[in-house]
Amino acid sequence: MITYELCLLYRIMPKAELASVVKRTANAIFEKGGIIRKLEHLGTRDMPHKTSIHGLVHHKASYFLIEFNAPPTCIDTLSDEYMRDVDIIRKRIYKKQEVKPFECTLHEDMLPPPYRKSVQELIAQAKKSEKPKFKYNTGLDYYPFQK
Questions:
Q1: What letter would DSSP give residue 114?
Q2: Which pLDDT tens digit goes with each residue over 57-70?
Q3: Which residue, 44, 91, 94, 146, has most beta carbons within 10 Å?
Q4: Helix H or strand E encompassing 26
């Protein structure tokens, strides 16, 4: 199954109601054959701009992030179900990208340039290459510029 991230903005409500709405949202994922990996509450914040949905104007919202695995066929039905929910102001479902392994080279980058491996390779490459030499193709028996 593919890993998805669901970003939800809920309307402002008391904790008990908010808990029941989050549980209802999670149960919808479970019913479609999904598995929740992480549920994160990002707090209650002002929205970047006012949003009007279901006949109400919202200035603040409770932000939630749900990471889950689900078959790709159920994403459209989940999206449709969340769109009809009156407690959800905004929802976005993203396919989570895999994190590529990263090797830290900070220690090497902090060295002075002559001691860095990449600079040493450039110096060795420059020493290997031959410098162009003057060719005596003038047809004269002597060098006219007095060597």
A1: G
A2: 999 999 999 999 99
A3: 91
A4: helix 15-31
